[in-house]
Structures are given as structure tokens and as C-alpha cells.
Task: structure prediction
Amino acid sequence: MKKTKPTSSLAEIPKNLPALARAQRVTERASYLRFDWPGPEQVWDKVAEELTELKSAAASGDRGRTREEMGDLLFSLVNLSRFLDLQAEEALAQTIDRFLQRFAHIERRIREQGKTLAEVSLEEMDSLWEEAKETERGV
Result:
């Protein structure tokens, strides 16, 4: 069987990677090929631009456009993580773990009060969220 040559230098990046890792590899490879922003300031501007476009798309009610703009914003954030010398996949994984720990703190404290999540206000949960953050910092 004859192997076909990729149509793009970026086509070799595996499609089965997690999306954030794949996006990071794409931006790394594009940068290597000299298709890149001159510095992080332009990437910050691009992130702000994409956020504005996402807000506009969401306000329009056009789900297809909103999904597209969300993807553009996420891609820009992954590119920014590269400029900040961070792995986007790792950063998000750590944030998810922190969120789960803080939410567990909220649930534990609510149980200690003899209540359920359904019985407390968002303001009470938010206060417990801040308590969890302070606990993490050792305050």
C-alpha cells in the first residue's frame, strides 16, 4: 500500500491526542515553521479579541457561531500558555483537581451543618469556596 504524503506540515500531529495537547502541539509546530506571533503581547490581544467575539456570538443566539468562537478562544488560550512556557493540558488538569477539592470542602462543611446542597444558597456555597481557598493557602 502506497503511503500518501501529508497535505500540510501540521497534518502529522495525531488527531487522537487530547484537544488541549493537540492544540499545543499545533501551535508549537506552526511556531517552528515561523508562523507565530512576535511576542506574548499580541497573543494577549488575540485572547481579548476572541473573548469579545465569543460574547457577541453568544448574544446572537447562534449556537454554531458560538461554538466556533469558543474554540477560537480556547485555541488562543492554549497558544498563550505556550508563550508562558506552560502545558495547557497540565494546567487544566491541575485546575480541575483544585476545583474538585474545593467542591468536596463545600459538601463536607454543608454536611457538618446538617444540611444538603439543595438547602443552602449560592452565597453560602461561595463563602465556603473562599474558605477552601484560604485553607489551601494556609491562611
